[in-house]
Structures are given as structure tokens and as C-alpha cells.
């Protein structure tokens, strides 16, 4: 009878070994694989968000650049006009030019001057 009792104990040990071996059939790097997959998925989501944002921002940027160019052109035109007006203003209020300006605007000449008329 002792021989019969010894064999079932060995069978239990053998079955427990088999269970351990079935547990090791899963891949060794399951956690690492899941982590890398999660990182790739998150990066793809972020890439999609960034591309969508850029697609919305690029047309807006182009419109702003064109508006900025228009404003720069208007500023240049206004600057030239301001320079012309400033020159005219300084000429009109220059005491040495006042006599000349009066002659230009009224067509009067000084009493000691003679009018010259060119004829062909």
C-alpha cells in the first residue's frame, strides 16, 4: 500500500509543474509591448491634433500676412504724403519765402520789378 500512496503525490507535483509551464506560454514582454503600443497611440493622437490645428492656422496666417502687406503699403503712401505736406508747411511758414509765396498766389510783383513776357 505504501507504493500506491506515493504515486498520487508525484502526480500532483507533475500536474502543478504543468500548470506553471502553461502560465509561461504568455509572451515575456507583454507589459513592455503594451507600454510601447500606448505611447505610439498617444503620439498618433497628438500628431493628428497638431496637424488639424496647423490646417486651421495656416490660412489665417496667410490672410494676416496679406493684410500686413496692405497696411505697410498704406503706411508708405501716407508717409510720403506727410513728408510732402511737411515740406509745404515749412515753406509756407518760412519768413524768407513769404514774399515769394505771396507773388505766386496773387500774381503781383514788386514795384521795383518788371514783368517779363516771353513771345515766340
Gist of the model:
The chain crosses the membrane at residues 36-58. 78% of the residues lie in helices and 0% in strands.
Description of the structure:
The protein has 120 residues and is mostly helical. The protein has a domain at 29-91. 78% of the residues lie in helices and 0% in strands. It has helices spanning 2-23, 30-92, 98-106. The longest helix is centred in the middle third of the chain and has 63 residues, at 30-92. It is rod-shaped, with a radius of gyration of 49 Å. It starts with a helix and ends in a 14-residue tail after the last helix. Keywords: Membrane, Transmembrane, Transmembrane helix. Residues 10-24 have a biased composition (Basic residues). Residues 1-24 are annotated as: Disordered. The chain crosses the membrane at residues 36-58.
Considering the chains and any ligands shown, give keywords for the structure.
transmembrane; 120 residues; transmembrane helix; membrane
Radius of gyration: 49 Å
Mean pLDDT: 82
Number of helices: 3
**Helix coverage percent:** over 70%
- What structural class should be given to the helix and strand makeup? mainly alpha
Total beta strands: 0
Q: The biggest beta sheet, please?
A: none
Low-confidence stretches: none
Overall 3D geometry? rod-shaped
Query: Separation of termini?
Result: 156 Å
Tell me what portion of residues adopts beta-strand conformation: under 5%
Described by its quaternary structure, the protein is: single chain
Element-level helix/strand string: HHH
Keywords: Membrane, Transmembrane, Transmembrane helix
Transmembrane segments: 36-58
Region (Disordered): 1-24
Biased composition (Basic residues): 10-24
Amino acid at each position: 500500500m505504501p507504493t500506491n500512496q506515493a504515486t498520487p503525490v508525484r502526480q500532483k507535483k507533475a500536474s502543478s509543474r504543468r500548470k506553471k509551464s502553461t502560465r509561461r506560454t504568455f509572451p515575456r514582454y507583454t507589459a513592455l509591448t503594451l507600454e510601447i503600443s500606448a505611447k505610439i497611440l498617444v503620439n498618433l493622437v497628438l500628431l493628428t491634433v497638431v496637424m488639424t490645428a496647423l490646417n486651421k492656422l495656416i490660412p489665417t496666417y496667410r490672410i494676416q500676412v496679406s493684410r500686413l502687406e496692405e497696411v505697410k503699403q498704406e503706411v508708405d503712401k501716407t508717409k510720403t504724403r506727410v513728408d510732402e505736406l511737411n515740406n509745404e508747411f515749412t515753406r509756407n511758414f518760412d519768413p524768407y519765402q513769404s514774399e515769394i509765396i505771396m507773388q505766386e498766389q496773387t500774381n503781383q510783383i514788386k514795384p521795383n520789378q518788371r514783368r517779363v513776357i516771353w513771345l515766340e
